[in-house]
């Protein structure tokens, strides 16, 4: 089972990054207008030190609903718009995008959440296939991200599914050694920065057992990283994700971890084909809001790595992976507690 689907739309990310660079948008202690009529409020830094993007897809949807007089729907989508979510760095302008997001976050006295998802031979030809052309291109891309971040605070989720796909052998054997090298190099490069935390992705509670992935994590540089991420773009409960993470942590030097809680409010869907229950499943809900107050010493944060409301792929009537799907977003929000 694949844990990651639906990276943010590259074009929209690039536009957002450029806008941030030009306008210096920030979301501080009060309300900030995103220019389209939607106001989003930054969460208290004491519980949630991560930056809320005032120009994200959800904020734009709030503005559209307000304009159309759909106030109830606007308030539902505000549940998404006013939470920090991962900013997925695109392939074309990594330095500019990383700089734009981290500068905006720094102005708000927050940390940006950046998701790096550009490994060569990405996603085993599934809905989010693609990635850098080769190893050299990937190294240059990572260098660009690092230059863009600089000394500003950032929390990086590194390559969802990249290690999992080594374990389940869907990444061709001839590319596996290179992938380990590229991941370890990326961890080292990013950890050389002053204020960057790095979490290597480590799958989810439903795909297998920690015994299968702890050695690949070690080979990919987990010892240099701050820890690992679990449940990215998936739906497993926080309870199950904590149990999985703790079993894995015990095998990799008690490393800390973060959990993607963006859409796990109702747990995993089991009513469809087993190999598609991760892809735009019905009846799901937003999970715990992003916070560093997890009440567990090993769990550094609950994060919304996957941006709720963006499609997992062209399944169950959805648009392409990463594209905003207003109806699905509204259902997630309405189903949440």
From TrEMBL:
The keyword Signal applies. GO terms for molecular function: hydrolase activity, hydrolyzing O-glycosyl compounds. Residues 26-54 are annotated as: Disordered. Substrate binds at residues 88, 207, 234, 278, 306, 310. Residues 1-28 form the signal peptide. InterPro entries: Beta_cellobiohydrolase (IPR016288), Beta_cellobiohydrolase_sf (IPR036434). Keywords: Carbohydrate metabolism, Cellulose degradation, Glycosidase, Hydrolase, Polysaccharide degradation, Signal. It comes from the Bacteria. PROSITE patterns: PROKAR_LIPOPROTEIN. SUPFAM superfamilies: Glycosyl hydrolases family 6, cellulases. GO terms for biological process: cellulose catabolic process. PANTHER family: 1,4-BETA-D-GLUCAN CELLOBIOHYDROLASE C-RELATED, PTHR34876. Belongs to the glycosyl hydrolase family 6. This is Glucanase. It comes from Streptomyces sp. R21.
């Amino acid at each position: 089972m694949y844990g990651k689907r639906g990276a943010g739309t590259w074009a929209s990310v690039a536009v957002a990054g450029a806008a941030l660079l030009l306008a210096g948008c920030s979301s501080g202690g009060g309300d900030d207008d995103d220019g389209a009529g939607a106001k989003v409020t930054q969460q208290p830094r004491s519980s949630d030190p991560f930056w809320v993007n005032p120009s994200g897809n959800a904020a734009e949807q709030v503005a559209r609903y307000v304009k159309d007089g759909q106030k109830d729907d606007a308030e539902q989508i505000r549940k998404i718009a006013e939470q920090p979510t991962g900013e997925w760095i695109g392939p074309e302008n990594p330095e500019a995008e990383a700089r734009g997001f981290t500068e905006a976050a720094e102005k708000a006295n927050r940390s940006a959440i950046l998701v790096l998802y550009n490994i060569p031979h990405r996603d085993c030809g599934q809905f989010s296939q693609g990635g850098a052309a080769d190893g050299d291109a990937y190294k240059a891309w990572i260098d660009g991200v690092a230059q863009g971040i600089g000394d500003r605070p950032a929390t990086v989720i590194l390559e969802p599914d990249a290690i999992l796909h080594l374990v389940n052998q869907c990444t061709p054997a001839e590319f596996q050694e290179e992938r380990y090298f590229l991941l370890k190099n990326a961890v080292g490069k990013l950890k050389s920065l002053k204020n960057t935390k790095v979490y290597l992705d480590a799958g989810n509670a439903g795909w297998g057992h920690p015994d299968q992935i702890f050695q690949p994590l070690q080979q990919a540089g987990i010892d240099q990283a701050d820890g690992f991420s679990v449940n990215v773009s998936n739906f497993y409960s926080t309870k199950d994700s904590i149990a999985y993470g703790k079993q894995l942590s015990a095998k990799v030097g008690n490393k800390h971890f973060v959990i993607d809680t963006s859409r796990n409010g109702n747990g995993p869907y089991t009513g469809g084909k087993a190999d598609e229950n991760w892809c735009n499943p019905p009846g799901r809900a937003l999970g715990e809001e992003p916070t560093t107050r997890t009440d567990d010493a090993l769990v550094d944060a609950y994060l919304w790595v996957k941006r709720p409301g963006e499609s997992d792929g062209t399944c169950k009537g959805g648009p392409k992976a990463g594209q905003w799907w207003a109806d699905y977003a509204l259902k997630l929000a309405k189903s949440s507690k």
